[in-house]
Amino acid sequence: TGVSYTPGADEGLLLPGRKIRFAGSLEQVPEMTVLTDFLVDRIYPVEAAEGTEPVAFEGVYCVGTLRKTAGGGSVAFLGFRPRDDQSGSLGYESRHWFEILDTLGAYPPTGAFPDVNDNTEHLSRTTPWLACRFPNGSVALAPHLRDVAECWPGGFARKPEEDAKIMERVTLPDDRLALDGFKVNGMSITYNGRLAMTCRRDESGRLAAFAGSDAKEITLDGMTTRFATENMPLVAWAPVEERRKVAGGADMLLFYMGQGVLHLPAPPDAGPNPEAFAQGATPGSRGEAVPVTLADGILRIEAGPQFAHRWIYIRL
User: Fold this and answer.
1) Residue 266 DSSP label
2) Is 151 helix (H, G, I), strand (E, B) or coil?
3) Which of 10, 76, 140, 268 could staple 132 via S-S, CB 3.0–4.6 A?
4) 213, containing H or E segment
5) Which domains are assigned to the chain?
C-alpha cells in the first residue's frame, strides 16, 4: 500500500466531530466530519512511503494515501470510514465514498461523448435518474428515489394500513421519465414515458429490445423508432436468446397492455411470412393467432385487447 502503520493500544483514534481534509489527487472531495465515536469511525494515521501521495488528513495526521502502480493502476489507503448517505437521512446528503471513487476513476465513461461521463453509476448519483447497464448491452433508466427519506420500519411483509400512514409523510418524485438527448453507456436517448424503461441496440444501432410504459416512441442516437400509434400502458419485446430457442418455436417475445397497432423493428434475417400466437392455457403453449405482417423491416401487429396481458410468440 505504500504506507507504514504503528499499532496502538486502542487501535485507532476516537475523534468524533473532527474534520477529514482532502488534498492532492483528492483535493476536489469536500471535507468530511467524523460522525460518531463508534469503532467504525475510528481513524488510523499512517506514514506515507516515498512515491506515495498523502491525500487525506485529520489535523496533523495523515489518514489517506494514493500510490500509482507501474501498470497504470493505483492503490489507495483510507484510514477512516468514508460517509455516504444518498437519501439525506440526517437532513443533508453526504457522498464522500462516491466522490473518492469517482475521482479515482472507478466510474469511467465509455468515451463515446467528449467531456461527458456516461457511466451508469456516475449518472445514478449526479442526475435525477437511476441508470443500470447489463452484460447483453441493455440499459435501464427510472426516476431515482434517493431523495426519499428512509422511514420504513422493516419487517418481512407489507401491511397496507401501516404503509398508508407512512406514505402520508413521503413525497415521491414525479414518475415521468423525460429524456432529451440523455447520454448513457454510449447511447444518446430521447424518450418520454412513465416509471422504468429498458432498451437495447443491435450491432447496427437498430432498436432490438424495449420495455416501457405510457410511451409510443424512442430515439437512440438520432434514430427514432415509433413502435405504437399511441401511448401504450406497457410495451415490451425482445429477441429470444439462442440457448432458449426450440425447433419451430418463437424468435421474438412480446408483451403489452392496452390496445393499438404496434410497429416493431424486425431482425435483419427475418423471413417474409412472420407468424404470431398468443400464449395458450399453459405456459409456452400456442393459443390464438395474432395478426402480423412484415414490410420494410417492420413488424405490424394488431395489438387487440383480447391479447393484452399475455405473452405473444413471434416466429420469423
Assistant:
1) P
2) coil
3) 140
4) strand 207-213
5) 3-103 (no CATH), 114-198 (no CATH), 227-316 (2.60.40.1180)
